[in-house]
Specification:
Chain lengths: 286, 294
C-alpha cells in the first residue's frame, strides 16, 4: 500500500509564494472591470425592456413565427423562377462591385502605401479618405447612389463598389507596405525608374495576395448584396424584405435557404481559387 | 576593377533562349486567359445588374453635387458657418447615438457569452461529443450567414419596433461569428494543461476551466473587442428597418432630403466609429503584448 506523503505546507509556501499571497491589485482591478461591464449589461438590458413582459411575449411570438416558417415553400414555380433570377442578380451585383472596386482601389492603395508614395501629405490624405469611405455603411451608399442612377441593381453595384474601394484601399496598401524591398532596389540599381520599380518589383510580389483578398471579399459582398435590396438597390433583398413584411413566412424561409446555399457555394468556389493562388496555409487567414 | 560578362557560345545559347521565350509565352497566354474569363464574367454580370454607362455618365454630376450639397444648410450657407444650426438636434442625436452604442454593447456581450458557452462544444480537440460538435457548428454557421438586418426584420415583427429587436439581431450574428472564431482559438491551444488536469480525475468542465480557459482568455477578449467595433457600425443601420438606434433618423433624413441633417449624423457616426476603433486597437495591442510576455 502506498504511503501517503506528508504535506509540508510551509515548504510549498516557500516554493510558490505567489499562490499564497493576498489577492493582487491586478486581480482586484480585473474583478472591478468585470463587475462594471456586468452592471452596464444589466442596465442596458433593463433600458431596452428585456426584463418586462414584452420580452417573454416576443419570445412566444418568435416561436410561433419559427413554427410557421416550416416547411420552406416558395408558393409556386413562378416564384421560384423570380427568386432564382433575383439571386443571379445579387451575385452579379457582388461580382461587379468587387471587381471594379479592386481596379479603382489599386492606384489609390499605391498612393496610400508608405514605401511607394514618399510625399507624406498625399499618403495621409489618401489614408483618411479611405477611412471615411469605410465608415459609411453600405446601405447609406446605396441610398445615395439611388439618388444618382435610380432604383435598381446598378445602384447596388455602385454601392458595393464604393464601400469596397475603402476596404481594398486599406488592405492593398498594407499588403504593398509589407512587400520585400529588395526587388525594387534591384530594379533601381539597374537604372529602372520608380514606375518600373512598382511594376516589376512590387506588383508581381503582392498580386497573389491582392487577388486572394478580392476573392475573399467577393464572398462577403454576396452577403451584403442580399440586404441592399431592402432599400431598393436590387437583388434578392427586396423579395426577402417583402416576404417578411407581408408575413409570407414559408416563402421567407425558402429565400433564406436559397441564400444560404448560394453563399456556401460561392464560399467553396472562392476558397478553392484562393488556395490555388497562394497555397493552403496562407489562404486560411485572409 | 573591371568585370567581363561571360557570353555562352551561340549553339548553347539558342536552346536556352528558346526555352525562355516559350515559358514567357505560356505565362502570357495564362494571363490573357484569366483576364478573358474575368472580362466575360463582368460582361455577363453587367447585363444582369442593368448597368447603364450612359445614364451613369449623364448623372455622375448628381453624385458630386449631392456630396457637396450635404455640407450646405437650408439657407444656402456652408454648415461650418453656423454649427448651432447644423447640429440643431444635437441632444436628440446624442441620445440616439448613446442608444446605438448601448445596443452594440449589450448585443456583443450577450453574443459573446453565448459563443463562450458554445465554443468548447464546437472545438474539434476538446468537444465531448462528435454529433454535438457538428450541430453546434451548423448552428453558428446559420447565425452568421443570415444577414443581421434579416434577423432584425423578423425580430421587429415578434418584439415590435424598437431597440430590443436590434439588440437581439446583433447578438445572434455575434454568436455565430464569435462562436466560430472562439472555437478556432480553442483548437489551437496546447493540450498538455488540459491533459494534466484531466489526469487528476477532474470532470470535463473543470478541465476546460483550468486547462483551456487561461490559454484562450486574452484572445477571446481581443476578438470580442473587434466584434464590438463591427457591431457599432451594424447597430447604426438597425434603424433602417425600425430596430432602434440612430439609423432611424439617418434614413429619414436621407429619404426626405434633409441634407445638412444627413451630414451631421454621418459625421457623428464616423467620429464615434473612429474613436472606438482607436480605443479598441490600443486595448487589443496591450492584450497581445500580455500574451507574448507569457
Amino acid at each position: 500500500m502506498a504511503i501517503r506523503p506528508k504535506i509540508d505546507l510551509m515548504a510549498i509556501r516557500d516554493r510558490h509564494p505567489h499562490h499564497f499571497a493576498a489577492i493582487s491589485r491586478e486581480r482586484v482591478s480585473m474583478a472591478a472591470l468585470a463587475t462594471g461591464a456586468f452592471v452596464l449589461l444589466v442596465y442596458g438590458m433593463a433600458q431596452f425592456g428585456f426584463f418586462g413582459g414584452t420580452f417573454l411575449a416576443g419570445m412566444g411570438r418568435l416561436a410561433e413565427i419559427a413554427g410557421l416558417m416550416l416547411p420552406p415553400d416558395p408558393g409556386s414555380w413562378g416564384h421560384v423562377r423570380v427568386f432564382i433570377m433575383a439571386l443571379i442578380e445579387t451575385v452579379a451585383i457582388a461580382l461587379l462591385g468587387t471587381l471594379v472596386a479592386a481596379v479603382v482601389a489599386l492606384p489609390v492603395a499605391l498612393l496610400a502605401a508608405k514605401n511607394v508614395t514618399t510625399a507624406r501629405i498625399l499618403h495621409f490624405l489618401s489614408r483618411r479618405s479611405l477611412d471615411t469611405i469605410r465608415s459609411v455603411d453600405i446601405l447609406v451608399w446605396a441610398l445615395i447612389w439611388i439618388n444618382v442612377v435610380g432604383l435598381g441593381p446598378f445602384a447596388g453595384a455602385l454601392a458595393i463598389m464604393t464601400s469596397d474601394i475603402g476596404t481594398f484601399g486599406k488592405l492593398f496598401s498594407e499588403a504593398i507596405e509589407a512587400a520585400d524591398r529588395k526587388p525594387v532596389e534591384g530594379i533601381t540599381s539597374s537604372g529602372g525608374g520608380r514606375i518600373l520599380g512598382v511594376r516589376f518589383g512590387i506588383l508581381p510580389e503582392v498580386f497573389p495576395v491582392l487577388a486572394s483578398q478580392v476573392l475573399y471579399y467577393f464572398e462577403s459582398n454576396t452577403r451584403s448584396a442580399t440586404i441592399i435590396g431592402i432599400v431598393g438597390a436590387g437583388g434578392i433583398g427586396l423579395y426577402l424584405a417583402e416576404a417578411i413584411r407581408t408575413l409570407e413566412l414559408q416563402q421567407t424561409s425558402f429565400i433564406i435557404l436559397l441564400i444560404l446555399v448560394t453563399v456556401a457555394a460561392i464560399d467553396f468556389a472562392s476558397s478553392q481559387l484562393r488556395f490555388a493562388l497562394i497555397g493552403r496555409r496562407a489562404g486560411s487567414t485572409p | 576593377m573591371s568585370s567581363t560578362i561571360v557570353q555562352l557560345p551561340e549553339a548553347q545559347l539558342r536552346p536556352l533562349l528558346a526555352a525562355y521565350a516559350e515559358s514567357v509565352r505560356s505565362r502570357r497566354w495564362h494571363t490573357i486567359l484569366i483576364f478573358a474569363c474575368v472580362a466575360v464574367a463582368m460582361a455577363l454580370s453587367s447585363i444582369s445588374a442593368e448597368v447603364a454607362p450612359l445614364r451613369f455618365i449623364d448623372n455622375i454630376g448628381r453624385f458630386t453635387s449631392y456630396i457637396v450639397r450635404l455640407f450646405y444648410l437650408e439657407s444656402g450657407a456652408p454648415v461650418w458657418s453656423d454649427p448651432a444650426e447644423w447640429y440643431w438636434g444635437l441632444w436628440r442625436w446624442l441620445r440616439l447615438l448613446g442608444e446605438t452604442l448601448l445596443m452594440a454593447y449589450v448585443g456583443t456581450l450577450l453574443g459573446a457569452l453565448g459563443a463562450f458557452l458554445l465554443c468548447f462544444l464546437a472545438a474539434a480537440n476538446v468537444a465531448p461529443r462528435r454529433w454535438l460538435r457538428i450541430v453546434v457548428r451548423r448552428f453558428c454557421e446559420l447565425c452568421r450567414t443570415v444577414p443581421e438586418l434579416v434577423f432584425a426584420l423578423m425580430f421587429v415583427i415578434a418584439f415590435g419596433l424598437g431597440p430590443m429587436a436590434g439588440v437581439l439581431a446583433v447578438a445572434i450574428h455575434t454568436l455565430g461569428a464569435l462562436g466560430k472564431q472562439f472555437a478556432e482559438v480553442v483548437e489551437n491551444i496546447d493540450m498538455k494543461p488540459v491533459e494534466g488536469v484531466t489526469s487528476t480525475g477532474a470532470a470535463w468542465h473543470v478541465g476546460m476551466r483550468f486547462g483551456a480557459l487561461p490559454q484562450v482568455m486574452s484572445n477571446f477578449v481581443s476578438y470580442t473587442l473587434l466584434r464590438f467595433e463591427i457591431n457599432v457600425r451594424g447597430a447604426a443601420v438597425m434603424g433602417f428597418v425600425g430596430a432602434g438606434g440612430i439609423g432611424q433618423d439617418l434614413v429619414e433624413a436621407i429619404r426626405k432630403f434633409y441634407y445638412s441633417d444627413v451630414s451631421a449624423i454621418l459625421v457623428m457616426i464616423v467620429v464615434t466609429v473612429a474613436l472606438i476603433d482607436a480605443g479598441t486597437a490600443r486595448v487589443r495591442h496591450h492584450l497581445i503584448g500580455l500574451e507574448e510576455k507569457r
